[in-house]
Amino acid sequence: MTDQETASALDPPPDVVARLERMKARDVILRVEGLDKQFTGRGRGVKALDGIRFQTHRREFLCIVGPSGCGKSTLIRILAGLEAASGGVALLDGVPITGPGRERGMVFQGYTLFPWLTVKRNVMFGLEMTGTGRSEAARQAGEWLDLIGLSAFAEAYPHQLSGGMKQRVAIARALINQPRILLMDEPFAALDAQTRARMQAYLLDIWKKIDVTVIFITHDLDEAIYLADRILVLSPHPGRVQEMIEVPLARPRSPAQVQSAAFRATKARLESLIHAPTSSAAEEEPYPAMPLMANVLDTVE
Ligand SMILES: Nc1ncnc2c1ncn2[C@@H]1O[C@H](COP(=O)(O)OP(=O)(O)OP(=O)(O)O)[C@@H](O)[C@H]1O
Questions:
Q1: Which of 136, 170, 216, 270 has the lowest CB atom count within 10 Å?
Q2: 75 C-alpha vs ligand 1 centroid, how far in Å?
Q3: What domains can be seen in the chain, in order of their start residue?
């Protein structure tokens, strides 16, 4: 693809423009203004985030990508209220985030189900914690288990489930409290490629059916393009907003779109941003040349 072909493939077609316009006409649900994070401690401090600024609209699917160490997890932990910012503010429906809250659901990479509770009790947990009676919590958990196709496993324990099933339960557990935002930090990274593809399609299916905004961190550019309305690209050392990219692909998404010019152009654009040389002083050192081990007498290349 020439640069010109890439540029024109990045222009969304009219139906995608119209959908993105409808999305931007919805209320802003999350506004992040000048967010900084400085880790202090023994030795020198680390500036993880510097002046992060963006906003998401209700029912948007926003992915966040960037090189390792650019502060993606730090950012989502601040949005979850698990970490305090050093400066700036994140506002959910206009209210500053100062700690965890039930209007934010979370799904992380590690399987975070309680191993000593059954699948159904895991899903009920959030409701019971916020004061819903056990029978009502059980009724709602039953509905969610139907929705995620795991009713037959209601009385099973997490160790009896596959990785994909565990993450489906984790998603149901996060959504049962009807959060405004679902925060996902590499939720499918530990799954094999086939299960991961099924989980992506499955997540889009749920997202379509309920009123929730998704913020999804991933290392996988194909995953980001397949899922997102827009992709926030961060640069490292310290993490800064590099670009917000509108994904020029129609919905519903399908695996066949991976072959399209728009998909390939978006991936090329993301790769050029993420692998661009940085002028930062904290740039990674090249690996030193490695000597052969003393007992290696021939070469393999
Ligand atoms: N608790 C902490 N104390 C000190 N430094 C930290 C802490 N947590 C993260 N950092 C530093 O902040 C920077 C951003 O880390 P973070 O884990 O948010 O990046 P990331 O983009 O999620 O990385 P990865 O893609 O590898 O998961 C890194 O330089 C990291 O070493």
A1: 136
A2: 10
A3: 3-103+180-274 (3.40.50.300), 108-178 (no CATH)
